[in-house]
Design brief:
By secondary structure, the chain is of the alpha/beta class. The chain contains eight helices and eleven strands. The strands form three sheets. It has a five-stranded parallel β-sheet with strand order 2-1-3-4-5, sandwiched between helices. Helix 3 links the parallel strand 3 and strand 4. It is globular and about 50 Å long. This is Response regulator transcription factor.
């Protein structure tokens, strides 16, 4: 079995070494990058399974690095940042991160979040043996490959967008609350006032080509949540 490879993009060597030390104890192989440009190159040239990106890095920041990585890869990304406000966290998630850890941080908590993200990828890879492929109209979802096609065209989704779509599509017409979606996909306690789920639903709809003149695949049930329309 190939080792799980984790990219650590952090411009402070002491922090990068600390993270590597704790991840190595878990059996992970680590690659380090000192800036965003090096991080993008590392993902392009190595089989990286998960990336930990500092937001404020020289040459290229974590936001831009994430954007470039997302153009071709769908690995989980955890942002590391000294910015601690809820708005900063939501911004990070909207920019494409799957999780957000604030500095200073407990290394063991970061390891736990890495483990959670990798478990979630494995969990969503095969949700239902009897339904290995999900189809609805022109939409086709391949859970094991974590790919989505709309009328034959590949749709580029972030891991969180894919997980949300897969969860809804696996239970057509069932209404899921924002809180349930957040707890299931992010694996964390839901905090009141968060619009993280609604933002991801909005970008997901945009990528699926939905607009006011088309039937929506994802229906909003006002005051309740969201449901997938077959």
């Amino acid at each position: 079995m190939k080792p799980v490879t984790i990219l650590i993009a952090e411009d402070e060597p002491e922090i990068a070494d600390l993270i590597e030390l704790h991840l190595a104890k878990e059996g992970y192989r680590c690659i380090k990058a000192a800036n965003g440009l090096e991080a993008v190159h590392a993902v392009q040239t190595n089989p990286v399974n998960l990336a930990i990106l500092d937001i404020m890095m020289p040459v290229m920041d974590g936001y831009e690095a994430t954007r470039r990585i997302r153009e071709q890869h769908h690995l989980p990304i955890i942002f590391l940042s000294a910015k601690t406000s809820d708005l900063d966290k939501i911004t990070g998630l909207v920019q494409g991160a799957d999780d957000y850890v604030t500095k200073p941080f407990n290394p063991m908590e970061l390891v736990a979040r890495v483990n959670a993200q990798l478990r979630r990828i494995m969990q969503f890879a095969s949700p239902a043996p009897s339904k290995s492929v999900l189809e609805a109209g022109g939409l086709v979802i391949y859970p094991e490959e974590r790919t989505v096609y709309l009328y034959g065209k590949l749709i580029e989704l972030t891991p969180k967008e894919f997980d949300i779509l897969l969860m809804l599509a696996s239970h057509p017409k069932k209404v899921f609350s924002s809180e349930h979606i957040f707890r299931q996909v992010w694996g964390e306690a839901y905090f009141e006032g968060s619009n993280t789920v609604s933002v991801h639903i909005r970008t997901l709809r945009k990528k699926l080509g939905e607009d006011l003149h088309k039937n929506k695949l994802i229906k909003t049930v006002w005051g309740v949540g969201y449901a997938f329309q077959e």
